[in-house]
UniProtKB/TrEMBL annotation:
<dbReference type="InterPro" id="IPR017871">
    <property type="entry name" value="ABC_transporter-like_CS"/>
</dbReference>
<protein>
    <submittedName>
        <fullName>Amino acid ABC transporter ATP-binding protein</fullName>
    </submittedName>
</protein>
<dbReference type="InterPro" id="IPR050086">
    <property type="entry name" value="MetN_ABC_transporter-like"/>
</dbReference>
<dbReference type="InterPro" id="IPR003439">
    <property type="entry name" value="ABC_transporter-like_ATP-bd"/>
</dbReference>
<comment type="similarity">
    <text>Belongs to the ABC transporter superfamily.</text>
</comment>
<dbReference type="InterPro" id="IPR027417">
    <property type="entry name" value="P-loop_NTPase"/>
</dbReference>
<dbReference type="GO" id="GO:0005524">
    <property type="term" value="F:ATP binding"/>
</dbReference>
<dbReference type="InterPro" id="IPR003593">
    <property type="entry name" value="AAA+_ATPase"/>
</dbReference>
<keyword id="KW-0813">Transport</keyword>
<dbReference type="GO" id="GO:0016887">
    <property type="term" value="F:ATP hydrolysis activity"/>
</dbReference>
<feature type="domain" description="ABC transporter">
    <location>
        <begin position="4"/>
        <end position="239"/>
    </location>
</feature>
<keyword id="KW-0547">Nucleotide-binding</keyword>
<keyword id="KW-0067">ATP-binding</keyword>
<dbReference type="GO" id="GO:0015424">
    <property type="term" value="F:ABC-type amino acid transporter activity"/>
</dbReference>
<dbReference type="InterPro" id="IPR030679">
    <property type="entry name" value="ABC_ATPase_HisP-typ"/>
</dbReference>
<dbReference type="Pfam" id="PF00005">
    <property type="entry name" value="ABC_tran"/>
</dbReference>
Length: 245
């Protein structure tokens, strides 16, 4: 079953053509990694999936709903599609536990006892159950990102989008976040789309690797073909050679 479908999608920022004729299908349960040079359209592509960026032309279907249809309720889409950003966007005036409980309380109207139970389960899943009463300012960057992941998981989404979630972290904090992402990727019920430069992560857990350049998808391969074979696109080959060596 398809979770996400792009059909001839075009996106502009003013006169700048950000996405060119994107055609892409992501099946439920897949882990897909997007790589490519800065400015290639990776973040724009995944931000369009939960309506943070609006497409100009084409059709974008998420969990059976067409985002180009003005009648589509974008908040209904976001109930099932979580997103983890480069920066953590935690509420500084709320505890870790309250940060995780807030969206399910407001959006899902989850009962308070159940909401707290699930929030603590998600904190335990990311290894931070002992930080529940702390405020965000008391946490490291890596801990904040793991809290942001727990917050997304607490909504029980069908799909998680990661927009370079380790790029703002100090190097020693990256592995803890990647390890959590690996456990999510191995969950066969979860669809994950990850923008990252972490090639080790891509090689270990991705089902597919998509290479973008200049707003276009120029390579879409299995991880084995992409890393162990040779991409057919010259730009992808050059990029891979620089990244790996």
């Amino acid at each position: 079953m398809s979770m996400i479908e792009f059909h001839n999608v075009e996106k502009y920022y003013g006169d700048f053509h950000a996405l060119h004729n994107i055609n892409l299908t992501i099946e439920a349960g897949e882990t897909v990694v997007l790589i490519g040079p800065s400015g290639s359209g990776k973040s724009t592509l995944i931000r369009s999936i939960n309506g943070l960026e609006q497409i100009r032309e084409g059709q974008l279907i998420v969990n059976g709903q067409d985002l180009a249809d003005p009648k589509t309720d974008i908040n209904r889409i976001r109930k099932n599609v979580g997103m983890v950003f480069q920066h953590f966007n935690l509420y500084a005036n709320k505890s870790v536990l309250e940060n995780i409980m807030l969206a399910p309380r407001i959006v899902l109207h989850r009962k308070e006892d159940e909401n707290k139970k699930i929030a603590m389960e998600m904190l335990d899943r990311v290894g931070l159950a002992d930080q529940a009463t702390k405020m965000p300012a008391q946490l490291s960057g890596g801990q904040k990102q793991r809290i942001a992941i727990a917050r997304s998981l607490a909504m029980r989404p069908k799909c998680l989008l990661f927009d370079e979630p380790t790029s703002a972290l100090d190097p020693e904090m990256v592995d803890d976040v990647l390890n959590i992402m690996k456990t999510i990727a191995r969950d066969s019920s979860m669809t994950s789309l990850v923008v990252t430069h972490e090639m080790g992560f891509a090689r270990e857990v991705a089902n597919r690797v998509i290479f973008m350049a200049d707003g276009r998808i120029v390579e879409d391969d299995s991880k084995d073909k992409f890393f162990n074979g040779e991409p057919t696109n010259e730009r992808a080959r050059q990029f891979l050679s620089k990244i790996l060596h």
